[in-house]
Amino acid sequence: MSIAALTSAEPPKPPASGWSGKHLLGLEDLSREEIHFILDTAESFGEVSSRTRKKVPALQGRIVFNLFFENSTRTRTSFSLAAKRLSADVQDFSASVSSLSKGETFIDTAKNIEAMGADVLVVRHSSPGAPHLLARHVQCGIINAGDGAHEHPTQGLLDLLTIRKAKGRIEGLTVGLVGDISHSRVARSNIWGLTKLGAKVILCGPPTLVPRSLEGLGCEIAYSLDDILPRLDVVNVLRIQSERQQQGLFPSVAEYSRFYGMNQERVSKAPGDLLLLAPGPINRGVELTPEVADGPNSAILEQVKNGLAVRMAVLYLLGGKTDAKPAAD
Amino acid sequence: MSGPEQRLCDALGLDALIIRLAGQILDGRTAGVPLALVGVRSRGVPLAERIAIQLRRETGDAVPVGALDITLYRDDMERARRWPVLQGTDIPFAVDGVEVILVDDVLHTGRTVRAALNAICDLGRPACIRLAIAVDRGGRELPIQPDAVGLVVVAAPGARVHVRIAPVDAVEEVVRISAPKAGEVRA
Lengths: 329, 187
Prior knowledge:
The complex is a heterodimer of chains A (329) and B (187).
Chain A: H1 3-8, H2 32-49, E1 63-68, H3 73-85, E2 89-94, H4 106-115, E3 120-125, H5 130-135, E4 141-147, H6 153-167, E5 174-178, H7 185-196, E6 200-204, E7 220-222, H8 225-228, E8 234-237, H9 242-246, H10 253-260, H11 264-269, E9 275-277, H12 290-293, H13 300-319
Parallel strand pairs in A: 1-2, 1-3, 3-4, 5-6, 5-8, 6-7, 8-9
Chain B: E1 5-9, H1 11-28, E2 35-40, H2 44-59, E3 65-68, E4 99-107, H3 111-121, E5 128-136, E6 148-152, E7 160-164, E8 173-177
Helix pairs in contact in B: 1-2
């Protein structure tokens, strides 16, 4: 990098609006400026992860609790690592071995953990709105790490960051979300984030998995992947969950793969700079073939790296909010 | 309300100050050890850039320049109500075995320098780190002293000293702003 480039960005971008939120519950709640602010902060944290010593003291003395009422090794590991890179103390909490199994309520569990000094609770729950409920009953910061089929905001943010870094912008792009839209929290967070930042979103999949009602969020609905591929700058391939297949929402995995799987033939018909995302874990041979998953259009591992940066940014921005307002009740 | 503002040097004076800093850096350098400049964001970066230009004029050698954001190393984070915006560290060279000249605009309490030393040491193991400061205004709270100083200013507690430099600022100068008088509210 040239010397001039170091100062060309000066004066630093003012915190136009910054992010004054105490919780991250979903992208639906954030403005376009707040989303860009979080992404800018995440880009700064990307540099920390590229160092030999990948650690900064920003959250020294803070305690981050991972409250996972639903299994998720990947997201929990990413949050844990992000907190550790900021020098926070991290404690994992698994519902299966907790007092919840002895009859304690969800809110009481969270209040007990807060009483142990938690500054931030990272919450995953199978019920939509569970993190929102906790946010009304505890004073520490709440990060939604996935609530049912509602939202997964840090996944949405990391997808946005991956697109912004690869394409240099989000505004004006056309992004296809392909797969099980009905049951996907990732899809909802992507829809909110992408449309707020000026991208066009096309939802694509079998009619049983793509509800028409989502048109109301400003999306286009399509049932043929081949028809929309030439228009796409980005395709985000969502995972087909095996339990959905057992509900009979589509005839067979093989048929799904034939119509909606990203294979080399489809990639070759798409624009050359098509960016391929997949939130993972990926089912090789179902939503995408191995050569596509590992091919030049794939940004899957970049997503993992960017996920760490996004979670560091969110923990940093929430970890400093010590002037907690009183709980509502 | 602030007290009156007194200009201590103008753009030409700032140029002279930068030449003085470059001379002191060359006088104090270790022979055979590569040199690099690291400016503390925000105003330390254009200062480092200008010093590098002067060093090149004097020696013919290009000296690499990096930018250091010390936000994540501040010791007052616990007290912050709204956490500062990150501007990012950008040091495009390895610091291992290098004589790093840390450059900042004003040296006051020494807390920024302490944070910067920790931040640089997290990036590698320099041969040594030296401190170049445009203006030393006194009032240290930590045992930190500069190796190169452009200007020494006496400033009462509560007074402020600003180095204004392009492209961060529209004008180039060094000013001292007096402490507000009793009964006045500082802006």
